[in-house]
TrEMBL record:
<dbReference type="GO" id="GO:0030527">
    <property type="term" value="F:structural constituent of chromatin"/>
</dbReference>
<feature type="domain" description="Histone H2A C-terminal">
    <location>
        <begin position="88"/>
        <end position="119"/>
    </location>
</feature>
<feature type="domain" description="Core Histone H2A/H2B/H3">
    <location>
        <begin position="4"/>
        <end position="84"/>
    </location>
</feature>
<dbReference type="Pfam" id="PF00125">
    <property type="entry name" value="Histone"/>
</dbReference>
<dbReference type="Pfam" id="PF16211">
    <property type="entry name" value="Histone_H2A_C"/>
</dbReference>
<keyword id="KW-0238">DNA-binding</keyword>
<dbReference type="GO" id="GO:0003677">
    <property type="term" value="F:DNA binding"/>
</dbReference>
<dbReference type="GO" id="GO:0005634">
    <property type="term" value="C:nucleus"/>
</dbReference>
<comment type="subunit">
    <text>The nucleosome is a histone octamer containing two molecules each of H2A, H2B, H3 and H4 assembled in one H3-H4 heterotetramer and two H2A-H2B heterodimers. The octamer wraps approximately 147 bp of DNA.</text>
</comment>
<keyword id="KW-0158">Chromosome</keyword>
<dbReference type="InterPro" id="IPR002119">
    <property type="entry name" value="Histone_H2A"/>
</dbReference>
<dbReference type="GO" id="GO:0046982">
    <property type="term" value="F:protein heterodimerization activity"/>
</dbReference>
<dbReference type="InterPro" id="IPR032454">
    <property type="entry name" value="Histone_H2A_C"/>
</dbReference>
<protein>
    <recommendedName>
        <fullName>Histone H2A</fullName>
    </recommendedName>
</protein>
<keyword id="KW-0007">Acetylation</keyword>
<dbReference type="InterPro" id="IPR007125">
    <property type="entry name" value="H2A/H2B/H3"/>
</dbReference>
<keyword id="KW-0544">Nucleosome core</keyword>
């Protein structure tokens, strides 16, 4: 039993995580994921570690995206571009839509103007100059 002499150490601190292991454990037990089933002691620690790693990856790449545009505030657009820019994250978040995220800018090569096809007006002006 706890007699009050030692300071309590949470499971998050023991695991070296920022995410709350106790909160994830409670959610695993009460939500439909494991409702009515037992949850091992290691499952919430593992899940907290995975969630923390994924969030760190997304925020790191989104931070680079924000800094590249010389902005001081990260937006949903930066997060979307960061996810779509990383092939593994893009595969993981394939069916996810982020509100206010927009789409990745891309113009198909067939739609770009070719070097040969100049407009008639441009050709007429160049012939008049000669």
């Amino acid at each position: 039993m706890y007699d009050g002499t030692k300071k309590r150490v949470s499971r998050s601190i023991r695991a070296g995580l920022v995410f709350s292991v106790a909160r994830i454990h409670r959610n695993l037990k009460t939500e439909r994921v494991c409702l009515g089933k037992r949850v091992s002691a290691g499952a919430p620690v593992f899940l907290a570690a995975v969630l923390e790693y994924l969030l760190a990856e997304i925020l790191e790449t989104a931070g680079f995206q924000t800094r590249e545009q010389q902005k001081s505030r990260m937006t949903a657009r930066d997060i979307t571009l960061a996810i779509k820019g990383d092939s593994e994250l893009d595969k993981l978040f394939d069916k996810v839509t982020i509100s206010e995220g927009g789409v990745v800018p891309y113009i198909q090569p067939q739609l770009l103007p070719t070097k040969k096809s100049r407009s008639r007006a441009v050709r007429a002006r160049s012939e008049q100059l000669v």
